[in-house]
């Protein structure tokens, strides 16, 4: 939630409403959604290239290290899916439109704030690695955060202005004045973080000692994410509140000031609400009163006791229990093992596809992963008989239908998508975990259209990303070229490189080669960030890959991870590099650290490979990285269309190629093959696609 303009209003009166804190030796309840957005947008991270997740992971780790150094014990609370009532849908759609505009601005070199697609997943992975306690609520977390903080008598850390309304015993610390980067010391030994704490008592005292109980009414009258009634403008105009400022911020602040002064004259919410209704037409009063009262309840204490989850692992949410969802689903949602995306699809049969910095003139990048989502929807169809009795506002009448809010050009639309009807033993969500590992893995790989034998040489933790890459290459909407695939696979080598550098017992020559290659990757990444213009077509291609990875991860989670979760974070950020991870990888064990994707690096490598650099020349200094690259390349090449291996300028449209080959295929095949072999050997000297395989691949392509 959030009250428009309230945060900037109270910050403009910082000396009156805030007290200075030296935060140490305490628990703190953190609004996880607010934190990862704040860290993403305030840490000089590049947002154009689809996510420098390694850099973001470093920032998150440093944040929590600052807390640990001050003996501050963090408890992170994350929002879950949308409320069952779906009352926030209008607000969510408005925000989706705003993000599309910001993404477009970023794509053409302007400014904007759009989180990279996998930022939430990266954030959770860092929390797990640092052993930070966290919970994912069933729906919006604000009330649960307030209730937990009051139970423990500790402060809340957030940037949500609703925490200026909640009656918090120990107060609310805004993130933008939480100086975790400027940790100080008392008497040379005790560390603390300078912070400011909002004082609700000081706030109410400023407005004639108004009753705190009036603040929820103030919030809904002012307009929050749940309530934005046009008819309230009638009240605001007739009550003659001072609304005459010229600037947008000024108008909002005058409205806030006017409402607070007006409400301070009433003893309690009932008296104030009766006076609000007097200004409205009689026919509207009852409905408005019911809506306002219902919205005011959002500021009351929650029935969920998060302390039980943190102390003994028990999460009980009455709203979730009333839906009759399987116990394993509720547990997985609370532990963050299932995404809120799954919760929305399950409860509302509606999902909102997140915005990326992509080519707005092309179909949105999530189209490519729609078949994966249709399988997920099929798994969720028969979750509980109680769900059939719920009121789905946006639910289409078809029994298999789900709705998706997606980008179209620079706007949004709601599309109806049919779930895939699955076999009977797959259609009972309550028994999905009882399926054997082999059955679950088979369903995952069949969805991704990948044979298990292809993945056998691949390190365990890279099996899912490589399977997803094979799916991505097969899709007709993918316009990937060879340098896109090469860049993607090269980026996957960074984690193993750091493992070599940090592993004991490696020969000096091996370590030096890994260091040199890693340094070259870092140079490429830094050079890309220096203002290189974004290639929109390349950005769109990698947005498609990220969408496939995200949906592949969600399906993998729903199937109780038949393949290990890929590690999206930077390996150097964690103290897990003392074992010989590379040896584990060579023998098919788990690769515990793997920086999977760095947008700046993958775009920079694309530019280098297009210019002059060959993959072989890059990897010649590190034979072990070269060997792993060959495994990754060989697994993906068999799923790539033949034309991506043809020299530049020879990959024509399918119709032209078919026409030409239909008339002179036999005559020209030998010449084309020889030319392709020569070009391919000159530009990609290992992971070599044999000429015979290329011929077979071309023939198969022509038959389609």
UniProtKB/TrEMBL annotation:
Under the heading SUPFAM superfamilies, the entry gives: PIN domain-like
Q: Where is this region: Disordered?
A: 650-670
Q: GO:BP terms for this protein? A: double-strand break repair via homologous recombination; double-strand break repair via nonhomologous end joining
Q: Which residues form the XPG N-terminal domain?
A: 1-97
Q: Gene3D superfamilies this protein is in?
A: 5'-nuclease
Q: Which InterPro entries match?
A: Asteroid, PIN-like_dom_sf, XPG_DNA_repair_N
Picking any one GO molecular function of the record gives: 3' overhang single-stranded DNA endodeoxyribonuclease activity
**Compositionally biased residues, Basic residues:** 651-660
* Highest taxon in the source lineage: Eukaryota
Could you tell me which PANTHER family the record lists for this protein? Answer: ASTEROID PROTEIN, PROTEIN ASTEROID HOMOLOG 1
Q: Which family does it belong to?
A: Belongs to the asteroid family.
Name-wise, this protein is: Asteroid homolog 1
Organism of origin is Pan paniscus (Pygmy chimpanzee)
Q: Upper taxonomic classification of the species?
A: Eukaryota, Metazoa, Chordata, Craniata, Vertebrata
């Amino acid at each position: 939630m959030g009250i428009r303009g309230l945060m900037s209003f109270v910050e403009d009166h910082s000396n009156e409403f805030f007290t200075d804190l030296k935060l140490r030796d305490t628990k703190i309840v953190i609004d996880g959604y607010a934190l990862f957005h704040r860290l993403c947008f305030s840490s000089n991270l590049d947002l154009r290239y689809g996510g420098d997740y390694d850099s973001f992971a470093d920032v998150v780790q440093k944040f929590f290290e600052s807390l640990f150094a001050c003996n501050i014990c963090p408890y992170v609370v994350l929002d879950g899916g949308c409320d069952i009532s779906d009352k926030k849908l209008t607000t969510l759609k408005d925000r989706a439109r705003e993000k599309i505009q910001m993404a477009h601005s970023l794509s053409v070199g302007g400014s904007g704030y759009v989180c990279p697609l996998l930022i939430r997943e990266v954030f959770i992975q860092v929390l797990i690695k640092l052993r930070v306690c966290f919970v994912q609520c069933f729906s919006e977390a604000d009330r649960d955060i307030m209730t937990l903080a009051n139970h423990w008598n500790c402060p809340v850390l957030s940037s949500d202005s609703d925490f200026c309304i909640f009656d918090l015993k120990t107060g609310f610390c805004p993130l933008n004045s939480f100086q975790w980067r400027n940790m100080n010391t008392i008497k040379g030994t005790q560390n603390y973080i300078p912070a400011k704490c909002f004082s609700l008592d000081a706030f109410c005292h400023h407005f004639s000692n108004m009753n705190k109980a009036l603040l929820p009414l103030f919030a809904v009258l002012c307009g929050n994410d749940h309530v934005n009634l046009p008819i309230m403008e009638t009240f605001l105009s007739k009550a003659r509140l001072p609304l005459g400022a010229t600037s947008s911020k000024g108008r909002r602040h005058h409205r806030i000031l006017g409402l607070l002064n007006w409400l301070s004259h009433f003893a309690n919410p009932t008296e104030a609400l009766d006076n609000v209704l007097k200004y409205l037409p009689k026919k509207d009063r009852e409905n408005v009163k019911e809506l306002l009262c219902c919205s005011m309840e959002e500021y009351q204490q929650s029935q969920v006791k998060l302390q039980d989850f943190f102390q003994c692992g028990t999460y009980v949410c009455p709203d979730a229990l009333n839906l009759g969802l399987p116990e394993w689903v509720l547990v997985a949602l609370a532990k963050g093992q299932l995404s809120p995306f799954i919760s929305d699809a399950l409860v509302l049969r509606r999902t909102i596809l997140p915005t990326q910095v992509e080519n707005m003139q092309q179909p949105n990048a999530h189209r490519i992963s729609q078949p994966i989502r249709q399988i997920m929807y099929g798994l969720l169809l028969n979750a509980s008989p109680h769900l059939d009795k719920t009121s789905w506002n946006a639910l289409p009448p078809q029994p298999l239908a789900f709705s998706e809010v997606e980008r179209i050009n620079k706007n949004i639309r709601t599309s109806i998508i049919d779930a895939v009807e699955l076999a009977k033993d797959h259609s009972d969500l309550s028994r999905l975990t009882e399926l054997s590992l082999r059955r679950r893995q088979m369903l995952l790989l069949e969805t991704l259209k990948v044979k298990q034998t292809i993945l056998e040489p691949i390190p365990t933790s890279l099996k899912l990303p490589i399977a997803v890459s094979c799916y991505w290459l097969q899709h007709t909407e993918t316009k990937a070229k060879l340098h896109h695939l090469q860049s993607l696979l090269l980026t996957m080598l960074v984690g193993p490189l750091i493992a070599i550098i940090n592993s004991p017992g490696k020969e000096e020559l091996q370590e030096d080669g890994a260091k040199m290659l890693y340094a070259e990757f870092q140079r490429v990444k830094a050079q890309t960030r220096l203002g290189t213009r974004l290639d929109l077509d390349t950005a769109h291609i990698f947005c498609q890959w990220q969408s496939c990875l995200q949906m592949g991860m969600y399906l993998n989670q729903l199937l109780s991870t038949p393949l290990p979760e890929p590690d999206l974070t930077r390996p150097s950020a964690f103290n897990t590099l003392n074992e010989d991870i590379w040896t584990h990888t060579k023998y098919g064990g788990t690769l515990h650290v793997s920086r999977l994707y760095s947008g700046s690096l993958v775009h920079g490598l694309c530019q280098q490979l297009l210019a002059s650099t060959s993959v072989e020349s890059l990897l010649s200094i590190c034979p072990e990285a070269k060997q792993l690259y060959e495994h990754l390349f060989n697994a993906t090449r068999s799923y790539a269309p033949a034309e991506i291996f043809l020299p530049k300028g020879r990959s024509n449209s399918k119709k032209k190629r078919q026409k030409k080959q239909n008339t002179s295929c036999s005559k020209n095949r030998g010449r084309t093959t020889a030319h392709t072999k020569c070009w391919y050997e000159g530009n990609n000297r290992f992971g070599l696609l044999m000429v015979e395989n290329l011929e077979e691949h071309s023939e198969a392509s022509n038959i389609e």
